[in-house]
Amino acid sequence: MEKSKYKLTFKGIIPIFTILVSVIFIYFGFTKYGFWDPMKGPKPGFVPVLISFLLLGISLLALFTSLKEEAPEFPKDNWYCVLGMVALVIGSFIIGLIPSVIVYLLVWLKRFEKVSWKSTFIVMAIVLVIVIGVFVMWLGIDFPKGIILDAIFR
Amino acid sequence: MDNLLMLMQGFTVVLTVQNILACLFGAFLGIIVGAMPGIGSLAGVALLLPLTYKFNPTTAIIMLGALYYSNMYGGSYSAILLNIPGDSPAIMTTLDGYPMATKRKRPGQALLTANMSSFIGGTIGMLILTFMGPALADIGLKFGPAEMAALLLVAMTSIGWLVGDNPVKGLLLTCLGILIAAMGMDTLSGVPRYDFGNIYLLGGVPFTPFVIGMVGFAQVIRLMGDRNKKTESKIEQNLTIKGSLLTLHDFRRLLPPAIRSGFLGTFVGVLPGAGATTGAFLGYATQKAFKNEEMLGTGAIEGIASCEAANNAAAAGAFAPLLALGIPGSGTGAVLLGGLMMWGLNPGPLLFTTNPEFAWGLIASLFIANILTLIIALGIIPFLIRILSVPIKLLIPIVSIICLVGSYSTTYSMYGVFVMLISGVFGYIFEKSGYSTAPMLLAFVLAPLLESNMRKAFIISQGSMDIFFDKPIALAFIIVLFLLILFPIVRFLLTKFGVLKKKIAK
User: Fold this and answer.
1) What is the rounded CA–CA span in Å between residue B215 and residue B49?
2) Are B125 and B314 within 8 A, CB to CB?
3) Tell me: the pLDDT tens digits for B391-415?
4) pLDDT of residue A71
5) β-strand partners of B185
6) How many domains does one find in chain B?
7) Does pLDDT of B124 surpass 70?
8) Position B504 confidence tier, pLDDT thresholds 50, 70, 90
9) Which of A48, A149, B225, B464 lies at a 20 to 30 A Cα distance from B396?
10) How far apart are CA B302 and CA B282, in angstroms?
11) Chain A residues in contact with B458 (beta carbon < 8 A)
12) For testing contact with chain B, the best of A47, A52, A100, A119 (most B CBs within 10 A)
């Protein structure tokens, strides 16, 4: 059997996503925030509803044009940095942001990228100058210390 | 004459130690970020936004302006030495820059041609900006809410049309950007909307983490695919300042194309959505019509001069609509505008009268940035090969952590980090699927202005659409808007019914 030349690819998922967004914005715009007041004119839902209708139309058009497009590839390797950042965020809640950054750099550069100790320490020095020197000391940002340090110093 | 006097006053604002240092820092970082393939001015400006919180608005925008402007210089380095453009405006520079560096064995002269042309083009752009900015603001003062709303719609639509290969995709993300900006407090009535019961969303989607994610972190995810690529230069000789100097004959060759492209690039930069990339393309295309000592594409000085002067002039020209009308011409312009708004400044027709020291200070700072960047560009020549050879796999964790701490520092909570992560993932998916995110950033920044003008227009007209058709300026903008929206639809229908030939992807 001949394979259909029309297929829903990831490019088609984006218009479907925006169709859903536009429907949600139209629904809440009309029902919750209001569109038009005969005395006062436009209500908070006015512009979002107008734009949502436009988005709905454009999304449908984009959906049709996407049917014949080739699906983009999302290599697995590219997502490792997202996982790394998620791990870093979780680490920040437990041991604090700055220690997590150090652990992240060690694991990322030595285990994952397998770079030399020299390069690892150079990168770590640059990052720590930025994080501690610029953000903590100069901008005065108080980064999360994590539940362990919070528990000790409470 | 008044403009020149105001410009002189602008120099008195800029010439403080803090402002000069900020300008120097921005120019230095801009060159480095521009030189490294893959980061680009948009991500560079976005990543630097949190660092400017310590400064007053004038100093902060001077630093960001210098960074944006000097980025145009840096973009050409990797184009000339590695045949990899540092950012999109430098694509045309590779055509003659790389052959001049490798085949003609004049890498230093190629770099200096790019630097000198950038300086000349930028200076022309800034001189025109000095006169055109206030003139545009005077025209803008005549705009009511209807004209402003129509102009904003044209600006938002045109960038979606010009960036990327498919205007439908640009328009789609433009609308999405407006809707994301609508989340949070309604600025006119103070009513919370589209917060979906989430306490964080009451304040809306924060600008800085959103931009850092959409351009900075999305770029990191993209770079993961290139992290094992080695960027090795084929340049055999050592780069020195002395060995890079231009002869008088070289200078005579670069001057006419640089001046011509300087004028052309400035006017391209003023157009919404066109920007430095279009300027460089047009500058190079125009140069083909003129006499060149060597054929373009074989390492001709004229080729490098035409596109480099045009892209820097366009970068300067883009400040005219940004300051005078509050309308940025590109994604980077949108981030600069967002930064201005964050510091409580409202670019637009009134800026030159309500905040003259700021507006003229910024214009004056561009002149200073131009000189400082040229000096830094000369000084950096001996170190360029080393800077360009920094492995991408070492850059990835550095940029990732800057994204994380930058996002945290703007919200003082992990909310900013979550926004950055989510928008980064979406930004990557959008770009990989052929949806350019620049229109969304522009729409996100301009949406509050659009909404307030649109609602005011409808209040004045008591709900009648006639307000957009009765006034000639508004009507002209609406006609342009309809053309921009209808063109892709008509093209789609014509292609569908076989009137137009379909493009076959190779």
Assistant:
1) 13
2) yes
3) 888 989 999 999 999 999 888 899 9
4) 79
5) B192
6) 1
7) yes
8) very low
9) A149
10) 14
11) 41-42, 46
12) A47
Return d(Cα A8, Cα A71) in angstroms, integer. Answer: 9
Task: Please provide residue A44's backbone torsions phi and psi, each rounded to the nearest 5 degrees.
Answer: -55, -25
Is residue B504 situated within a structural domain?
Answer: no
- Crossing angle of helices B91-102/B301-317, nearest 10°? 150
Closest in A44, A70, A131 to B405, CB measured: A131
Angle between helices B57-82 and B331-342 (to 10 degrees): 160
- CB within 8 Å: A14 and B54: no
Contact list, A10 vs chain B (CB under 8 Å): 429, 433
Residue B69 has pLDDT above 50, yes or no: yes
| B161 contacts B167 by C-beta, under 8 angstroms | yes
CA B175 to chain A, closest CA, distance in angstroms equals 6
The boundaries of the domain holding residue B206 are 2-496
Gap between the Cα atoms of B10 and B8, Å rounded? 5
- Measured distance CA(B265)–CA(B282) in Å, rounded: 8
Residue B413 included in any domain:
yes
B residues 126-185 lying closer than 8 A (beta carbon) to A: 166, 168-169, 171-172, 175-176, 178-179, 182
B502 in a domain, yes or no? no
pLDDT band (50, 70, 90) for residue A2: very low
B487 residue type, one letter: F
CB contact under 8 A, A21 and B409: no
SS (H, E, C) B12-55: HHHCCHHHHHHHHHHHHHHHHHHHCCCCHHHHHHHHHHHHHHHC
pLDDT at residue A3 above 60?
no
Q: What is the pTM of this model?
A: 0.85
Question: Which one-letter amino acid corresponds to residue B371?
Answer: I
Could you read off the pLDDT of B169-194 as tens digits, one per residue? 888 999 999 999 999 988 888 889 99
C-alpha distances out from residue B52 to A47, B60, B80, B170, B404, Å: 32, 5, 32, 30, 16
Shortest Cα–Cα distance, A1 to chain B (Å): 25
Q: What is the ipTM of this complex?
A: 0.91
Among chain B residues, the shortest Cα distance to A93 is held by B414
A94-116 burial code (b ≥16 CB/10 A, e <16): ebbbbbbbeebbeebbeeebebe
Q: Which of B21, B187, B401 should be substituted to probe chain A, the one whose Cβ sees the most A Cβ atoms within 10 Å?
A: B401
Cβ pair B394:A80 closer than 8 A: no
What local confidence, expressed as pLDDT, does residue B137 receive?
85
Strand partners for A41: A37
